[in-house]
Amino acid sequence: MAKNKKNTGLKVKIIGCGGIGTCLTDTLCRYLQYSDHPNIEVSLIDGDTYEERNRERQVFQEIGPKATVTAERLRNEFPRLIFWDHPVYVGDHNIIQLIRENDIVFSCVDNHKTRKLVSDRAEELDNATIISGGNDYEDGNVQIHIRRDGTNLTVPVASQYHPEIMNPQDKNPGDIDEERMGCQQMAAAAPQLLIMNNLIAAHMLKAFYAVTKGYHEKNPQEYSEFYVDIPSGKVMPRTRVVKQGM
Amino acid sequence: MAQERKQGKGFSEQKGEAYESPKQASQVPSAKEALAKAEAIGQIKVVHGSADGTFDNLVGVKVSVVKASLVHAFNIPGEAQAFVNGETVNGDYVLQANDTLEFVKQAGVKG
């Protein structure tokens, strides 16, 4: 935590327990378990269900709701942390309850519609941190939206830099007829690389560490976004300019 | 010196070259000098995702021309939005010395 902030505990929300989410949760929770943060709550949010075919990229011990199965596994391993499971998709109807003041949100979702929802919700709050990751097959990016006292220190996830998130053309999984186009069909249409999921998760965790240590305070715009690319071997931070009133 | 190497001057010549290197090092411009020189030339940084490059011959060139030139080298999709120094610009913007031109790569979708 930043030195000048009152240490009132940590509320972490992980939206999406799929490829990036399962890569991220174990390391995050192990770090938190042995950290000096008091009163740590971790909420796992995902409306999807683990199936056998998920095993090539996702960590789970039983078939069932991703949020519940993951929370159960982590409760046993990290008893100092308090886990909440929300086996639901984030939508207009529940986002106010799911994302609240002072939350640190890891957005590990697989669609821009949900990223937009989360981004818009963050801007309704006075204090929130959104760490959003997404990947294609061999590259991806991480965005870090830091909002303090009603002011954006870094650009929101949905901003002029990313019109594809500002005006998403895809759908929230909760809005999709699962018999017609479930997550598995979408996954089949766009295969993913476990190594890429892992890279994005690692960089999201790096961002989390930097923000909780207050490293962003000196030059927050340098902590806005970075790209990760396997073929070129590059990790490239990008400066983003916060506009007044954003 | 390179030509001398080709002529096979051997080990002693290389040793002599190593001995002279401290003098040569003093002739290498410092980072500050290099930066000042780059600013004087008017270099322009062009970025797309993790790809980037610095060019010293783009001052006065339109963004649309740069995009067309680098579309393959930087793998820039046609719909990529251009930003100069963080501000949105259209293809008619004429680049000025020390601009940073970014064609913003779309965010990864999957997770």
Counting DSSP H or I runs of 4 or more residues, the number of helices of chain A is: 8
- At CATH level 3, the topology of chain A is Rossmann fold
> What is the CA-atom radius of gyration of chain B, in angstroms?
21 Å
Largest interface: A-B, 43 and 20 residues
Structural class of the helices, strands and pairings of chain A? alpha/beta
The CATH architecture classification of chain A is 3-Layer(aba) Sandwich
Number of distinct beta strands of chain A = 11
- CATH C-level class of the largest domain in chain B: Alpha Beta
Sheet with most strands of chain A:
9 strands, mixed
Q: What string, H for helix and E for strand, traces the elements of chain A in order?
A: EHEEEHEHEHEEEHHHHEE
Number of structural domains of chain B? 2
CATH class of chain A: Alpha Beta
Keywords:
heterodimer; A: 246 residues; alpha/beta; Rossmann fold; 9-stranded mixed beta sheet; disordered N terminus; B: 111 residues; alpha+beta; Ubiquitin-like (UB roll); 5-stranded mixed beta sheet; 5 strands; 37% helix; 18% strand
Summarize it:
The complex is a heterodimer of chains A (246) and B (111). Chain A is an alpha/beta fold and 246 residues long. In chain A, 32% of the residues lie in helices and 22% in strands.
Structural overview:
The complex is a heterodimer of chains A (246) and B (111). With 246 residues, chain A is an alpha/beta fold. Chain A has helices spanning 19-33, 66-77, 95-98, 112-124, 163-166, 178-181, 183-189, 194-212, and strands at 10-15, 40-45, 49-50, 64-65, 82-86, 104-107, 128-135, 139-148, 151-152, 225-229, 234-238. Chain A has a single domain (10-238), classed as NAD(P)-binding Rossmann-like Domain (Rossmann fold). Chain A contains eight helices and eleven strands. In chain A, strand 6 (104-107), helix 4 (112-124) and strand 7 (128-135) form a beta-alpha-beta unit. The longest helix of chain A is centred in the C-terminal third of the chain and has 19 residues, at 194-212. Chain A is globular. The model of chain A is unreliable at 1-5 (pLDDT under 50). Chain B has 111 residues and is of the alpha+beta class. Chain B folds into two domains: 2-37, no CATH class; 43-103, Ubiquitin-like (UB roll) (Roll). In chain B, 37% of the residues lie in helices and 18% in strands. Chain B has helices at residues 2-6, 11-27, 31-41, 63-70; strands at 44-48, 51-55, 82-84, 87-89, 100-103. Chain B has a five-stranded mixed beta sheet with strand order 2-1-5-3-4, with no helix packed on it. The radius of gyration of chain B is 21 Å and the shape is globular. Mean pLDDT of chain B is 78; it is low at 1-20. Chain A binds chain B through residues 16, 18-21, 107-112, 115, 132-136, 139-141, 143, 160-165, 170, 190, 192, 197, 200, 227-229, 232, 234-236, 238-241, and chain B through 47, 49-52, 81, 83, 85-88, 102, 104-111.
